[in-house]
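Subgroup meeting minutes
Present: P.N., E.W., G.H.
Scribe: E.W.

1. P.N. recapped why we're keeping a running log of single-chain structure predictions: easier to compare across weeks, and new members can see raw inputs and outputs side by side.
2. G.H. added today's entry (171 aa).
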Amino acid sequence: TGAVDGVWDQRSKQGFCIWRELTGRDINRDVPDLSEQSAIVETTKLTLDREFIVGVNINKACQSAVWVKDATKQNFEIFYVSTGTEPGGTDVGTWSITWRVNRWYESVQIPDGWMYKPMFFAYKGQALHGSEKDSLVHWHPASHGCVRMLHKDIEKLWAGGFSGGDIVTGK
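Output recorded in log:
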């Protein structure tokens, strides 16, 4: 969630939001109160609830994605993402990956909008992809609708076999 420096910045607040989602609490980016601070320190293992599906679960409020790798829900990874700004934004719903491009790819809709290894999932051409620079994966919505990911994280999806037909869900 950032440097261990005693400063709770926007990335820290994003981390609190993700922790709340994964521990079944009300999702928000507030600084934790004393009881939540204790609960954070006492958390030794995160367990996903039944709402998570096998696939990539996008949370627009937290600007996060949880990749659930199998039905046990014990094997998962958490990623920072940057979803689309309003109006329009990243769609809410459930889709499957329809096609992937294993290289840099220029957006058809956004001239000079380069995507790193995109995996397209929504009918409007939305995709999971690395962006031109990792610094464009903000703690807030910043894309035209796609889900921006760090290069190392999109590489994990590719290396882990996330592929055509795999599920993407967004809320």
